[in-house]
Here is the input.
Amino acid sequence: MSPGHAADTVVPADLNLLRTFLAVHRSGSFTAAARLVGLSQPTVTSQIRALERQTGRELFERQPRGVTPTPAADELAARIADPLDALAAVTGAGTGPPSAAEPVHLGGPAELLCTLVLPALAPLIAEGVRLRVTPGLTEPLLDELRAGRHDLVIATDRPRGRALTAVPLGDEEFVLVAAPVWADRLAGRLAVEGPSALHGVPLVAYAEDLPIVRRYWRHVFGRRLSCRPALTVPDLRGVIAAVTAGAGFAVVPRYLGASGLASGALVLLDEPVDPPINTAYLVQRPGVVGPAVALVRERLLASAREW
Here is the structure.
């Protein structure tokens, strides 16, 4: 038996080294791991070096941004992750009331957070849960989740890889809408002429590359979008406000247009049998989480059934 082979080496008894190692393995960064375990970055570096001396193997390859685990590190992580998580659940997380816990860091699309998520979580704040909310795009938020900056992220795409745990949160349906002034001019034409009936009507969009509108055109009309936006607003609530004021037409999530549709301030221009939908996912950072994070997660999953 070779003493220098990781598979043959007895796992070190120092749990602190193993906890630090697992944080680095999961976050991909010494700096991010330091935040996760509450140590300084130099201390994390020293602990990883100590563990490498004990195992006799290099565990991480240093990169310009972060670190990459070696095969030996992947093997060690696979052996210790479940036992350490179980131990943390018993001895660390899960003790004390939610009010005594660290703030829960939650990220997601600004519109979804402000319209549906914060009203759903408001009762938890009154019960003592502390919450820190960060709006943003899915990929940057997931990168920050891996680095330990968030506990939960609402993602508009399922995250790649196995490091993050994701569960479907709910589906958002996209609808084609305009103010009554435009809907009256288009009455009946869309069903006869198809999307060409919208030529000459200003398009209000979320982004210059029109990801939501292009998807609607492909899914519902089976063709490529050929027009350019007259107005772009990087917030779908702004898109709704502009369209309601008569700026033109837009494709938006139904939940954002619900009040306008109910009041008559917005009108559905099209009602396809199979409207395009997008699934949102609730993504949790690796490792054991505290009771406040678990409480927020369960409240979100329960509330999403009513969205």
